[in-house]
Backbone:
């Protein structure tokens, strides 16, 4: 039977990390998948729960969590609503949160293989974490970015430093979401550490790169950049797919969108071939 339990950890700046763990209590391998959501995303966005069930029914323990400064709180777990937390987010905080959850997995499921699946900005985090942490066994990136600074425009930086804030739009709600200058300062202070392409070139783990060729948020050419940085990586193109593989939020269908199902099928095949 598929079960789902929740966990709570302490994240960056003492903010809470809310997570959940989906598994089959009759057939669970010594394998844990940790899913890292992207920019403006969260663990229960769209069809993420269907993805968790897909892998759980195949014996994998699937953990996903909200980054501590994602702006998603326990009071309203289905939307970004804490704009103060969202504005205070940084790449360092996100990497620290990922490390906190990996520590939790390594302690709770000692000896289990750990695979990171990262979507969009979460893909960049997964590449860096996979390259720097020997506890990680495999990396899978879906629609991953190759540069954290691609999430803003270079011409915005001067205003950002002066005013302390810029805004990005939530495409679904049209709400203006603030980004504090701490994000920019953190990126500039750790530019070498946060170089996704450099980490990719040094990543020695099995790595699957999945990307839609109709992704207007992060073009397919970015996946090609990542694959060129690490020729040993496996790259799979999802023909006709957008950035979220046909999902949307809220997602009320009982089956995954066709493109997302293809992503999961290709990911499962990769996991089975790299045991």
Residues:
């Amino acid at each position: 039977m598929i079960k789902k339990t929740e966990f709570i950890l302490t994240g960056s700046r003492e903010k809470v990390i809310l997570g959940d763990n989906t598994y089959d209590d009759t057939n669970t391998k010594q394998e844990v998948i940790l899913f890292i959501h992207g920019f403006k995303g969260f663990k229960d966005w769209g069809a993420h729960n269907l993805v968790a069930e897909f892998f759980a029914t195949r014996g994998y323990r699937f953990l996903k969590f909200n980054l501590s400064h994602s702006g998603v709180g326990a009071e309203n777990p289905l939307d970004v609503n804490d704009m103060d937390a969202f504005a205070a987010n940084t790449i360092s905080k996100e990497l620290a949160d990922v490390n906190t959850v990996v520590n939790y997995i390594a302690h709770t499921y000692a000896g289990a293989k750990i695979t990171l699946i990262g979507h969009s900005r979460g893909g960049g985090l997964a590449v860096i974490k996979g390259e720097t942490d020997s506890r990680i066994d495999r990396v899978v990136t879906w629609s991953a970015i190759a540069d954290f600074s691609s999430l803003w425009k270079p011409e915005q930086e001067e205003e950002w430093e002066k005013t302390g804030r810029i805004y990005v739009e939530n495409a679904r709600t049209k709400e203006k979401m603030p980004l504090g200058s701490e994000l920019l300062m953190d990126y500039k202070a750790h530019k070498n550490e946060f170089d996704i392409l450099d980490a990719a070139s040094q990543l020695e783990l099995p790595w699957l790169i999945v990307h839609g060729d109709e992704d207007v948020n992060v073009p397919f050419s970015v996946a090609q950049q990542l694959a060129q940085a690490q020729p040993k990586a496996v790259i799979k193109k999802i023909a006709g797919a957008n950035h979220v593989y046909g999902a949307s939020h809220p997602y009320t269908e009982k089956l995954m969108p066709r493109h997302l199902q293809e992503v999961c099928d290709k990911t499962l095949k990769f996991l089975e071939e790299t045991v």
Notes: The chain has a mean pLDDT of 96. The chain is about 35% helix and 25% strand.
